[in-house]
Amino acid sequence: MKVLIGCETSGIARRAFAALGHDVWSCDIEAAEDGSNRHIRCDIRDGILSEGWDLLAVMHPPCTRLCRSGRRWMSGPGKWTQPKRLPNGRTWADMRAEFEEGVDIFTTCWTAPIERVAIENPEMNDLAKDRMPADLPPPALVQPFWFGEPAYKATGWYLRGLPALQATNKLQEPRRGSADWKAWNAVHRMPPGPERARLRSRSFPGMMQAAAHQWTDAATTEIRSA
Q: How far apart are CA 85 and CA 66, in angstroms?
């Protein structure tokens, strides 16, 4: 199966699918962290989506301005009114430009000429939902601890032609407020810094191993029965 992992530099998803013997490539505007020769450095909108892929998994498209937590920087009361505050050193025009880029990347991937698409993105705010394709379903939400990863991070998958992920190794949750509970919330408690966004968006290997198995199994079954 020919698989494209879009918007990924870590190689975590690419390696999970490749371990099953598939023809897998990743792409991003940045270089691959692992130096893999199976990584294409490009903008995912620049034609690569039309190269005959069986499955597209888009890992971390720009979502800061599309997600619910980012709405306060986009608009005040109602829709597209002047925000009460803006991030230091940024303008409303900056926010709008980033919003438009996020919408364009997401919709380009969702409407790609590929039968099976999975896009990782948080639940969107109302401004972003207004700009989405009519056939976009609600995200299928999962947690890393469903897949043996001791962590909390609600992860939304927008799926076309693929099943929702099923838990494979669900861990017992720690007592709220305990040391383990605080450790599981490390992603949310991460301090500000230049690497914060990259580290917060990093894939969980257990989740990606489950995705590789479940999605390629479903696709293979569908292809064989066609």
A: 17
